[in-house]
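Weekly puzzle thread! Below is a chain. First person to post its structure in token form gets bragging rights.
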Amino acid sequence: MSKRAALLLAPGFEEAEAFITLDILSRLGIQVTTVACHAQNQVISYHGVVTVADVLLEALSTTWFDAIVIPGGPEGTVNLAASLAVSAFIQRHDEANKIIAPICSAAARVLAGNQLLKGRRYTCSGELWMQHSDGEYVMKDVVEDGNLISGRGLGVAFDFAFQLALKLTGKAGAADFQAEHIYYDRWRSQGLK
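Winning reply:
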């Protein structure tokens, strides 16, 4: 049975972080469900791309995923952080030891802003970490601490997505093949923890 990931989308989400991650996970056989975290399936991204999500968050109260992916975007992460339903969804999966995967501003705004990091090490964009006391900020491109995998920002979205895919599937050879296939020479599983 293939692994399943929920990709949380709120108005203003960073589309490249979301779609790069969706692409890489899908290439490695992970079923990605796009989740609208507001009142309708249509979600407009940070740069105005109209996206139709697979499902509304409110319909997933009893559904489980192996990973929760949280893209950044200044407006998108503010919207996600303000939603009690989003926080509860993330917390439910975190408590079940499912993978929580924020990128860019999501780790600071959505997780630290709602006390969901629980002291774990993480990375995020800019100096947002300075506004929060939850978690331990690490200046690295991708940081893994237990079931938390965080990415610094858009420039490392492929690294983030490949590391997440490897964690979900355990298939280093398949991940390396896909990295080679798309000519992404920066990332390989060898030597990664």
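Puzzle host: Confirmed. Bonus trivia for everyone else. The chain has a mean pLDDT of 95.
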